[in-house]
Amino acid sequence: MKPMGTCVYTPTRDCIRHAFRASGKRHLLITGSRGSGKTTILKELEGDRLPGVTTWAAPCRGVYLKNNRTGETAQVGIYDPAIPGPDRKMRPCPEGFSRWGVNALEDALHAPGDWVSIDELGYLEAQSPEYQQALTRLLTGKRLLAAVRRECLSPREDAFTVDLDDPYGNVGCVILASGLGRRFGGNKLMASFRGKPLIAYALEATEGIFSRRVVVTRHREVADYCRERGVEALLHRLPHRSDTVRLGLEALGDVDGCLFCPGDQPLLERQTVAALALWGANAPDAILRPAWAGVPGSPVLFPKWAVPELKALPQGAGGGHLAKKYPHRVALLPLEDGRQLLDVDTREDLSRLQ
């Protein structure tokens, strides 16, 4: 079991793009602690090729700002060792942000194209009212891709935010592995697929994303396999799908949402699961599902408000019952490859996917 609040899988450029586009948000903001990789992600998203500004600090000297489009550079911060505290030893230059910074943002506002980039927004920028006003105009007229220090981040309904220190939040995952395999003719989750048990692919697709994972199963061999790989497994004998949902949620404890992942989708990609979780951190009221050609599939991410109802599902019902009850709250993550959503019900399915 992964400790609460830790994260291993850093969202990739493509994962961020996928979740952001599906969200319909206007701006994309990358935040995180110093050294978390904000600038690296911004460059991978081609922010350095957009109109806008780039700022950087020269230790014990100052902070400098460059107009990305013209290449003009000016000093906007001065190193001052007399400033109290262990860090933030820079103070704004006279007319730094209020003149050079504002001019650069105005230039970006009137540049061709929809997108502009800022790397980064920090505490010095916050000390210039003129720069803040120019930034507000820029947010109104353009779409912004920016690296932002966390302490300078202001919530915006139209912004998709990726916190590289904690991109997915306190979201749990229940891997559903309780099927009896009647049509398969046995325990399908331990059947070999490309040299590994079928259940191994659900473990890999969900690894490093969630604050806590639990596999809910009726099969001891599945539980033993998961535990050997450090994944919590709950062995039970209850008959209904609603039982597995409730048991999984009870095992997770207090989470801000939960992804229910079938154990029999071997082509599901971890990047797709991460995109759902990343989008979930920006859409706390939505039920999120992947879809191909407009047809929704699994896994399904439910927000915190849905947890009490999931624990009290009608006998035999699954999470789909809640998605049908609240269709206006369901949002879809379009996939380019619909094979990710294929599951294994029969031995013929397994052979075809092989």
Give a quick summary of the entry.
The chain is α/β, with parallel strands linked by helices and 354 residues long.
Structure, explained:
The protein is an alpha/beta fold and 354 residues long. The protein has 2 domains: 26-157, Rossmann fold; 172-353, Spore Coat Polysaccharide Biosynthesis Protein SpsA, Chain A, CATH 3.90.550.10. The chain is 30% helix and 26% strand. The strands form 4 sheets. The protein has an 8-stranded mixed β-sheet, sandwiched between helices. A hairpin with a 5-residue loop joins strand 3 (62-67) and strand 4 (73-79). Helix 1 (13-23) crosses helix 8 and helix 3 (96-109) packs parallel to helix 4. The longest helix is centred in the first third of the chain and has 14 residues, at 96-109. The two termini are 30 Å apart. 42% of the residues are buried.
CATH architecture of the largest domain: Alpha-Beta Complex
Beta-strand portion reads 25-35%
Helical/strand content category? alpha/beta
Poorly predicted parts: 1-6
Q: What is the overall shape?
A: elongated
Regarding CATH, which class of the largest domain?
Alpha Beta
What share of residues is helical?
25-40%
Largest sheet: 8 strands, mixed
Write the layout of secondary structure elements.
Blueprint: H1 13-23, E1 27-32, H2 38-44, E2 52-58, E3 62-67, E4 73-79, E5 90-92, H3 96-109, E6 115-121, H4 129-141, E7 143-149, E8 159-163, E9 172-177, E10 192-193, E11 196-197, H5 198-205, E12 212-217, H6 220-228, E13 232-235, H7 241-252, E14 257-262, H8 270-282, E15 287-292, E16 295-296, E17 300-303, H9 307-311, H10 319-325, E18 330-334, H11 347-353
Parallel strand pairs: 1-7, 1-8, 2-6, 6-7, 9-12, 9-14, 12-13, 15-18
Antiparallel strand pairs: 2-3, 3-4, 4-5, 10-11, 14-17, 15-16
